[in-house]
TrEMBL record, chain B:
GO terms for biological process: daunorubicin transport; doxorubicin transport; response to antibiotic. It is a peripheral membrane protein. This is ATP-binding cassette domain-containing protein. Its main location: membrane.
Length: 276, 326
């Protein structure tokens, strides 16, 4: 049997770079094919935020007040976007566990592909998925009357900050995915994701919570991103005069950078520990 | 070109206190199926993971296709295929999509990867199911797809880590056929298994591994001779006939028959399997000894271990001299 594509062993930097990109793209395509083959997954993924929108917007909405005034639904939508991004790390963790548990990761590692491609391809694929999530959620929000009164650039910047948070959480997802033993255990990560998304300014202003809980919510990275996107969308913000609330735009960049700086090296190290 | 497809010298690998490999040596000539036989926890999988560059070794050295696994890992990966204990394929994708993806990751290029996928689907008899999701595949089909994925690059050395564990007899046969056809094309295969039968069926040479080191190796015949080979076993209906039956068995046996009085059973190793069986059956009939059961059986892995190591496969302590039921 002859395979004509055997490659020379001594590759230059250029060739390596080419394959690192090409291999990443192959992994991205794999992720996109998952979406195509399992459209119900998108429905699942978006079902929760959409149901939450309806629940909070219509069922609890009339009882909710926005400190400083403003329409609750306008206040709610950026929170919903932020929560969806916050929950996104579970998707990353799940596929990482899946690949590890089924031996797919080992197969990749025993192949001559670029080792970085598994992670970068995963990252790009997750961001594409998150963008799709935001498109669907944004259209839903528009349909029930939400509007961005910010300019085009501000609106795009707001979505950019949301994706930046999702990007940072990829690394937490990878670390958790490599830590938990199997897919069932990955499912229980929801117990982490739920408070992480909810104890924030996503649904209600932290100033309305008990002091200790409000403090946690204020310093939750999700809050900074949500508050910053509210400012950029020109939606009601409802912030108090604490430092963290006053610097939401700054912190919406700082938090994801800090998370990435901590968890990206951890993810790489966890990945390398597989060869112990 | 290197003489050996696989060469391992004194490999050591510790997991905490546990010594997974403890002076593991192996020499696999090119172009054959080499069986690595041992019970759970003997170190088979660790050996495969080191030889396929997945895990670093703590001591010793290993070459695959003439390349050092520690310092030339990338080059090694171009020359090996690995099919592990799981069917390591993406279950959400179809069979065809899986093979195309792995082909591209093997750097075949999009077009060649697609062609190669078709070749392999045909070779492994998966064309019909090619566009179905893996979730609909049977266990045997998954393993065949897994084997196909490990063969994308026409590897010099193929590692099969317990390729039939968890398969029903039909799935097992499917995988065995696939392995045989690979060997016919000149691939060197390192096959790990817990089944003596499987090693015997496929391997041209077998190494027995216990507690992280190879304790015996050779062609299956010599190994079987070493451990006594096949055994003839007779269960008599009337215990009174047991010694008479033992005498009949002794005539064809290559060693003193062993007698189990409570079970009314006598068994002994034989060299000429079929001749021995027909001879014993005829003589017993002629002598009018009623037989409950008669047959040939392979030594079990347990018996192999007992014979080679003095302890049972799942024991940590060496067996005492007292009789251990096999």
């Amino acid at each position: 049997m002859s395979v004509d594509a055997k490659i020379a062993d001594d590759e230059g930097v250029g060739t390596r770079l080419y394959w690192a990109v090409a291999d990443s793209w192959t992994i991205v395509l794999r992720g996109l094919t998952h979406y195509v083959r399992q459209p119900s997954n998108i429905a699942w993924q978006l079902g929760f935020p959409i149901v939450s929108v309806l629940l909070f917007g219509y069922v609890f909405g009339s009882a909710m007040s926005v400190p400083g005034g403003g329409d609750y639904q306008e206040f709610l939508m950026p929170g919903m976007f932020g929560m969806t991004m916050a929950f996104g790390f579970m998707n990353t963790a799940y596929i990482v566990v899946y690949d590890k548990a089924r031996g797919v990761t080992d197969r990749f590692r025993s192949m001559p592909m670029a080792p970085s491609a598994v992670v970068t391809g995963r990252g790009v694929g997750d961001l594409i998925g998150a963008s799709l999530d935001l498109v669907v959620l944004g259209l839903t929000a528009l349909a029930i009357g939400w509007r961005s009164s910010g300019g085009v650039l501000d609106t795009l910047a707001a979505f950019g900050l949301l994706l930046l948070l999702r990007f940072a959480l990829i690394w937490i997802g990878v670390v958790l995915g490599l830590l938990v033993p199997n897919e069932e255990a990955a499912g229980s990560l929801f117990a982490v994701a739920f408070p992480f998304g909810m104890i924030s300014s996503a649904f209600t202003a932290p100033s309305l919570m008990p002091d200790w809980l409000g403090a946690i919510a204020l310093w939750n990275p999700v809050s900074s991103t949500v508050t910053a996107s509210r400012e950029l969308f020109g939606n009601p913000v409802a912030t108090g005069d604490t430092w963290i609330e006053q610097h939401a735009l700054l912190m919406a960049v700082v938090w994801p950078v800090v998370i990435t700086l901590i968890f990206l090296p951890l993810a790489v190290r966890r990945f390398q520990r597989l060869s112990r | 070109m290197p003489e050996h497809a696989i060469l391992a010298e004194g490999i050591r690998k510790n997991y905490g206190e546990k010594r997974a490999l403890d002076g593991f040596d192996l020499q696999v000539p090119k172009g054959m199926v080499y069986g690595l036989l041992g019970p759970n926890g003997a170190g088979k999988t660790t050996a495969v993971r080191i030889l396929t560059t997945l895990v670093r070794l703590d001591g010793g050295r290993a070459e695959v296709a003439g390349l050092d696994v520690a310092t030339q890992a990338r080059q090694v990966r171009r020359r090996i295929g690995l099919a592990g204990q799981h069917a390591a394929v993406d279950e959400i994708l179809t069979g065809r999509q899986n093979l195309r993806m792995f082909g591209r990751l093997f750097h075949l290029g999009k077009k060649r990867a697609a062609e190669r996928a078709e070749e392999l689907l045909e070779q492994f008899d998966l064309l019909e199911a090619a566009d179905k999701g893996i979730k609909t595949y049977s266990g045997g089909m998954r393993r065949r797809l897994d084997l196909a994925a490990s063969m994308i690059f026409a590897p010099d050395v193929l590692f099969l880590d317990e390729p039939t564990t968890g398969l029903d007899p039909r799935g097992r046969n499917e995988v065995w056929d696939a392995v045989r056809s690979l060997v016919a094309r000149g691939t060197t295969v390192l096959l790990t298994t817990q089944y003596l039968d499987e090693a015997d069926q496929l391997a041209g040479r077998i190494a027995v591994i216990d507690r992280g080191r190879v304790i015996a190796d050779g062609p299956p015949e010599s190994l079987k001779r070493l451990i006594g080979g096949d055994r003839i076993e007779v269960v008599v209906r009337d215990p009174a006939n047991l010694s008479a039956a033992a005498a009949v068995v002794a005539r064809v046996a290559s060693a003193e028959p062993e007698i189990d009085e409570t079970a009314g059973r006598v068994h002994a190793p034989v060299a000429e399997r079929v001749a021995a069986l027909t001879e014993v059956a005829r003589t017993l009939q002629d002598d009018g000894i009623a037989v409950e059961d008669i047959g040939l059986r392979r030594p079990t892995l347990d018996e192999v271990f007992l014979r080679l190591t003095g302890h049972r496969a799942d024991d940590d302590e060496p067996a005492t001299k007292e009789k251990v039921q096999a």
